[in-house]
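Researcher: I'd like a structural prediction for the single chain below. Treat it as a standalone chain; there are no partners to consider.
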Amino acid sequence: MTTTDIIEYFKENSELVDHFLEEKLVFSESPTLLTNALRYGVIGGGKKLRASLLFATAEGYGVSRQDLLPLAAGIEMIHSFSLVHDDLPSMDNDDFRRGKHSLHKAYGEAMGILAGDALLVEGLKIFVSDPFFPTTLGSRKTVRFLDVLLGSLGAEGMVGGQVLDVESEGKSVTMEDVYRIYRMKTARFIQAPILCGAIAGGAPEEEQEKFRTFGILLGECFQMKDDILDVTGESRTLGKTAGKDFEQEKATLIKVVGLDESLRLMNETFVQAESVLQSIGRPFSVLDEIARFAISRDH
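Model: Treating it as a single chain, here is the predicted structure.
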């Protein structure tokens, strides 16, 4: 599979998830303004990377993309909530996301907060309201999905990582500090859809444990690449404002060890991730290509 193929894979998955969300995000009682903001925040734009990680892992166990659309949509709604809140003035204060105005710039700061809240709630609601989960995957797997996702989001996951990220701005940090932020803020929610794909496919616990390790390593690579692109990329290509980390004195590897060493550490971590994935002993060629894309992308 080439880079062109993996980009086409992302495109196909984005279209599948967006079509599902077009039909799902219709509410009889919701204020029109909120519904429009929700749809703006999650439909269109972006790679839908986490949906693709879910699909690529599950496909290794013979589970089709079509069979996992509600799960993928819920994960992408939750991810979009995190982006909407991350862009707020009190957080990263970014005016652009996915090549368009960030939600709070398009709809106002209050709607940025409220629509982000609703994306999280409605994303989680899919797990208890969509008949797909009890009828196709069963209640036991559904509870496992929720346990994985909520664990990746809470005080020891994304939210905790965001707190550390904010607390560290403008301060002297160590590599250990930076890696802790990377793992909590980003890697746990890269790990989550991979692990959900393994659970959906009925992977034995031994293989799930390897996916836990692979997911964290890949998540670290992904955040390292984001930080590198913040320094080397252009806003037009990134779809968001370049140079924000430097401007806000964020805790990044580049701040601690510089660009060249950050590149070396990213590639070293990628090799470790590849080794873990290959040790599972099943064909995960698409998942492998997504991992390669994570460190070679330009946006």
